[in-house]
Design goal:
heterodimer, A: about 110 residues, six-stranded mixed sheet, B: about 120 residues, mainly beta, seven-stranded mixed sheet, about 50% strand
Chain lengths: ~110, ~120
């Protein structure tokens, strides 16, 4: 069971908007920046959002991030079939068990 | 162009050892914390270990502490993961990942991964 909680799957029609939630605690999200990753089969994950809401160069404005308290959200607008992937949130954690924690992942289906 | 290329994966028996390598290029290796992250079949990403740029600080997830050792050779721009006492549940694709310029940024570049299968 992952330290950060994400919905296992979300879906929306092409062209529409979807949000993916990531819930944690004060030992992780509540006191640290959150990043988001897109993972396609057979490749390494790709950084989409860092420091809660910043996009690396080359990431379209369709991808956005936000954080409030111990939860974070990834938003994707103008959905495309190429957005079908697994999405993970991640952040530092101050517990003794792990420096860094990921969410369990959310599979996005574009209908 | 930043590149991270893992190698060293394969089939190993339970209780055995394996050493993974990650060759880095396209950036000043010593300036970045590095990490190993794995994904077991049908599971999500799991952070394994990280190491500071000068190698002077290392951290591990509790489940591999005492069995795995992360190291780096900055002269060779390489990251390593020595895995001992391997168990079936260590079967996974292992990714090498670079922390961004500020470690708070998370992992800004990843390799394509190397598969480790622990089975008799």
């Amino acid at each position: 069971q992952s330290v950060l909680t994400q919905p296992p799957s979300v879906s929306a029609a092409a062209g529409q908007k979807v949000t993916i939630s990531c819930s944690g605690s004060s030992s992780n999200i509540g006191n640290n920046y959150v990043s988001w990753y897109q993972h396609l089969p057979g490749t390494g994950p790709k950084l989409l959002i860092y420091d809660n809401n910043k996009r690396p160069s080359g990431i379209p404005e369709r991808f956005s991030g936000s954080k409030s308290g111990t939860s974070a959200t990834l938003g994707i607008t103008g959905l495309q079939t190429g957005d079908e992937a697994e999405y993970y949130c991640g952040t530092w954690d101050s517990s003794r068990n792990s420096d860094w924690v990921f969410g369990g992942g959310t599979k996005l289906a574009v209908l | 162009e930043v590149q991270l290329v893992e190698s060293g994966g394969g089939l190993v028996q339970p209780g055995g050892s394996l050493r993974l390598s990650c060759a880095a290029s396209g950036f000043t290796f010593v300036n970045h914390w590095m990490s190993w992250v794995r994904q077991a079949p049908g599971k999500g990403l799991e952070w394994m270990a990280n190491i500071r740029g000068d190698g002077g600080e290392r951290h591990y997830v509790a489940s591999v502490r005492g069995r795995f050792t992360i190291s780096r050779d900055n002269g060779k721009n390489s990251l390593y993961l020595q895995m001992n006492s391997l168990r079936a549940d260590d079967t996974a694709v292992y990714y090498c990942a670079r922390y961004g310029a500020m470690a708070t940024m998370g992992f800004d570049f990843w390799g394509h991964g190397t598969l480790v299968t622990v089975s008799s």
